[in-house]
Each structure stands twice: as C-alpha cells, then as structure tokens.
Automatic annotation (TrEMBL):
<dbReference type="InterPro" id="IPR015615">
    <property type="entry name" value="TGF-beta-rel"/>
</dbReference>
<dbReference type="InterPro" id="IPR001839">
    <property type="entry name" value="TGF-b_C"/>
</dbReference>
<dbReference type="InterPro" id="IPR017948">
    <property type="entry name" value="TGFb_CS"/>
</dbReference>
<dbReference type="GO" id="GO:0005125">
    <property type="term" value="F:cytokine activity"/>
</dbReference>
<dbReference type="Pfam" id="PF00019">
    <property type="entry name" value="TGF_beta"/>
</dbReference>
<dbReference type="InterPro" id="IPR029034">
    <property type="entry name" value="Cystine-knot_cytokine"/>
</dbReference>
<keyword id="KW-1015">Disulfide bond</keyword>
<comment type="similarity">
    <text>Belongs to the TGF-beta family.</text>
</comment>
<keyword id="KW-0964">Secreted</keyword>
<dbReference type="GO" id="GO:0008083">
    <property type="term" value="F:growth factor activity"/>
</dbReference>
<keyword id="KW-0339">Growth factor</keyword>
<dbReference type="GO" id="GO:0005615">
    <property type="term" value="C:extracellular space"/>
</dbReference>
<protein>
    <submittedName>
        <fullName>Inhibin beta chain</fullName>
    </submittedName>
</protein>
<feature type="domain" description="TGF-beta family profile">
    <location>
        <begin position="130"/>
        <end position="265"/>
    </location>
</feature>
C-alpha cells in the first residue's frame, strides 16, 4: 500500500440537503471499505473540499459522525472559513477499529457549500522495520540511513544524495489552465552523489556501492558496476481542484508528483 492511499467513497442513501425544525443543514453520508488495506493502518484522515461562502453573523460549522449499530457518534466539529478549501478530520481510531468506515457529515448554515463535494479518506501505513537496516547495523555501516525521515539538502554545496526544493507554478509552466487550485506547490527533486553505503534504498544498492568502490580501487576480478543513483524512493499525491471536460469543478488526486524521500538505488 502506498504511504498515502486515497480510499474511494461509496455513497449511502439519505445524502443531500435536509432540515430540522430550527436550522437548515446539508447532509452527506458515505462508506469507505478498509478490507483492501495490505498493512495495518498507521493514520487516517477524512478530507473534504468545501466551496466559498457568504459572510454571515454566525459562521457555518461542519460536524463529523461515525455511524454503526444503529447509532451515530460525533467525532468532531469544525468551523468553516469563508474561503474555499480543504477541511480535514483525524479518523485514525475509527479506521483502526473497523473493516468499513461509515460517516455522516452535517453542515449548518452552509448555504449549499457541500454541493458536489466528494469526501476522501486517506490512509497512511505503519512503517515496518526493514531487514536492510538490521544488515547495515550488523556490518557497521555508519552512514547507512537508520530513520524514515527524508534527508533534505541543507545548502547548495551539499554533494551527497538529498532532497532539494523545486517549486512548480502551474501558470508559469503553462498548459495547466484547467487547474483551479493550488496555484503552485513544492514538488522537490533529488540530487547529489551516492558514496558507498550512504543513504541506501535497499541491500542491492548497498552491494552495488561496495562493488563500485572495490572496482575503482583495482581489486582483482571485481566486476564493473556504476555507483548507485540518487532518486525518489517515496512519492505522495497532490489534491487538485480543476475543471473537467464538461466545465464542472472536480477534485482529483494527482498521484506520485511530490517527492517525500530520496535514497541511493
């Protein structure tokens, strides 16, 4: 399972605009299946894009409920800003307890700000300890990476493999007129060299680096191998708001466009 996995929603009956005796409200109901998750859930976030709203004396509020066993349990309430944007809820505990997550979103004083909204559930996996790290420790490779955090370039003089900032501006790049938001984002890129045993992505890269160094030293019968290359080892998705072919606003996750981590491979 990728580091951040969007789970598609299955719409349940009863969604739309409802009302009570005192306050009108919009209601969205959806179900997310978690049975396809290959690894234990490390974290879960429910995200929803809401439209911009008018200035009101009392701001709109969005409440999230989980539904099960004939009961409804409120998890959180969020005030909605006037500007359009993402609203996020942490649903990790609820996602870990069930094979399917049934949710209900109720928005008061919204004025149809949820019209056409599609809630997304994003799962992050629990990091498993990798054999290559045990191997590197056993062999005493002091520069082998032992943590899951990205190695960012500290300055322009860094020569070893690291993650460098690279801002993408859709307007300046051209050809992305259909994208509404974001106007720009940080995509990052990987640069730098890969000395033997440094920031290796796997045991194969570890061995390849050793063989490359031994061949350079002129060790007899040592095969020739190029040094490992600095490349993205983890990528994440970018949520974008855009117009589709019919001119309607859609929310889509553009997969594998943000570099989260660089390693030598």
């Amino acid at each position: 399972m990728p580091l951040f996995t969007p789970v598609p929603a299955r719409w349940l009956s009863g969604g739309g605009v409802g009302s009570s005796s005192r306050r009108p409200q919009e209601v969205l109901r959806a179900s997310f299946s978690l049975e396809a998750a290959e690894q234990p859930v490390g974290g879960a976030a429910l995200r929803l894009w809401v439209r911009s709203g008018r200035r009101r004396r009392r701001p709109a509020s969005l409440a999230l409920y989980t539904v099960g066993g004939g009961r409804r349990h409120r998890l959180a309430v969020r005030p909605l800003p006037r500007a359009a944007g993402w609203v996020s809820f942490n649903v990790t505990d609820a996602a870990r307890r069930a094979s399917a997550l049934r949710v209900e979103l109720r928005c008061r004083r919204c004025g149809r700000r949820l019209s056409g909204a599609a809630p997304r559930l994003q799962l992050s996996r629990r990091r498993a300890r990798r054999v290559r790290r045990d191997t590197a420790d056993f062999l005493g490779q002091s520069e082998a990476v032992r943590s899951g955090s990205p190695v960012d370039c500290a300055n322009s003089h860094d020569k070893k493999c690291c993650r460098q900032k690279m801002e993408v501006n859709f307007k300046e790049l051209g050809g992305f007129e259909q994208i509404i938001a974001p106007a720009s984002f940080q995509a990052y890129h990987c640069r730098g060299g890969c000395p033997a045993s440094y920031n290796v992505a796997n045991d194969h890269a570890l061995l390849q680096g050793w063989i490359h160094e031994k061949h350079k030293q002129g060790v007899k019968n040592m095969p020739h191998a190029h040094a490992p290359c600095c490349a993205p080892s983890k990528l994440s998705a970018l949520p974008i708001a855009h117009y589709d072919a019919q001119g309607k606003v859609r929310i889509t996750y553009w997969e594998n466009v943000v570099v989260e981590e660089c390693r030598c491979s």
